[in-house]
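Hey L., structure's done. Input below.
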Amino acid sequence: MDKDEHDHQKEHKEQRAVQSVEIGGRLLLALAEHPGPMTLKDLAAKAGLPASRAHTYLVSFGRLRLIEQDAVTGRYALGAAALQVGLSCLHQLDPLKAATPVAEALALDIDQTVAIAVWANFGPTIVRYIEASQPLHVSMRMGTVMSILGTATGRAFAATLPRHQLEQAMQGAFGDGPRRLDRSAVKDVAQEIQDIQAELRQHGVVRAAGRPIPGVNAFSAAAFDHEGKAVLVITALGHEDNFPADWDSDIARAVRQAAADVSLRLGYRVKASIGP
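Output:
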């Protein structure tokens, strides 16, 4: 037996699971996924357990205050201890740390350049840049501040952030130009933001085809935290020869799924639509 095989077997033994914990955990996950308290019958069915067996676990969880039972209706819900665990998890979350492995997997999967941006003092700012196997020669690196309306990254933020944040950044040193000082131009900007929001609602991503760099396409999507706030944007970009700009392309779907995966890691619950 070689060393690698020995290490693999050792790791496998060390990862032995406790089946009863996994079974009981299904009850907690079922409660977490349900919008309100549940009857024993429904909860047991959701967890794939007989009601009598589920009840045994619920008694133990109740003693730990992980669940609580309504004295009147008899329905079960998550308890105070579960809330404490959830809040501790949220406080420990680092959005960039959660997004980085997802972005790296995305870049590997589609073999395109992928960037992560956050909203900083001057607007959309690149904080992580992952090159494809064939580097894309564009002036985008860590610390680059992106145009809000002229890039896919900026447009993803424009579709999801409060209007006052956008206006403040657009009037700053890295904003989108003095045209906003003209009253008619302000109306044009407002209409453009509404169009971007409609684009996101319809397709789940925003795009920039051949702009601001001719011949380079990009798709972007925002990731949300547990409060529904857009905390970062994932962008994939590449040359138009091997990066189709079709809304239903594999790349567009991959970017949309990557942002959804990060949102899930950050505790976001999917809503029906994204509004202004």
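The longest strand covers residues 230-239. Residues 177-184, 272-276 have pLDDT under 50 and may be disordered.

-- N.
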